[in-house]
């Protein structure tokens, strides 16, 4: 019975990882590739680790380690994706030709890499009620 | 059909095909950030492969390796993004 549960979890995780790999190969743009891979790979890796946590129930340390890895993956994958996406925007990675809107255009200070709201030029500290 | 043979003949080939597809993106990748996220995905799939292999061989020691590999993937991506941004700023 527990084998069927573990096999199902492993299958869903492996298919999610395969979808992530197909996505990183087929998507036309860096930003689309980033948005595909991070979510699907985190889901797949988390499910595989969950099946390992179910498979070794008599060893508490293994279950704890698997849960710790799941926690760590879900904590760090969005942070790493945000940082690499921000860097890609700064170094001028080109967008897909089908992209119709870029809300960040002109919002970043070129020198200090600080994000402004775009209301007043050169004043990106705070804006009182506007 | 036991769980071990199911993992050996179904799950591990699926993960191997995924690794090959990501490797194609690492070789093709037009920009360096594409290669960085492909490397990140490669290490995440590696964590999954190690976990599944530890289930298949019933040795729970391999989970430690997966933990260290997950740490190194995060650090690598952070370091790449930090220094690429610094290089672009000059």
From TrEMBL, chain A:
GO terms for molecular function: sodium:proton antiporter activity. Keywords: Membrane, Transmembrane, Transmembrane helix. The lineage of its organism: Bacteria, Pseudomonadati, Bacteroidota, Sphingobacteriia, Sphingobacteriales. PANTHER family: ANTIPORTER SUBUNIT MNHG2-RELATED. The chain crosses the membrane at residues 6-25, 37-56, 68-91. The keyword Transport does not apply. Pfam families: PhaG_MnhG_YufB. This is Multisubunit sodium/proton antiporter, MrpG subunit. It comes from Parapedobacter luteus. The keyword Transport does not apply.
TrEMBL record, chain B:
It comes from the Bacteria. GO terms for molecular function: sodium:proton antiporter activity. GO terms for cellular component: plasma membrane. It is a multi-pass membrane protein. InterPro entries: MrpF/PhaF-like (IPR007208). Keywords: Antiport, Cell membrane, Ion transport, Membrane, Transmembrane, Transmembrane helix, Transport. The chain crosses the membrane at residues 6-24, 36-56, 62-84. Belongs to the CPA3 antiporters (TC 2.A.63) subunit F family. This is Multicomponent Na+:H+ antiporter subunit F.
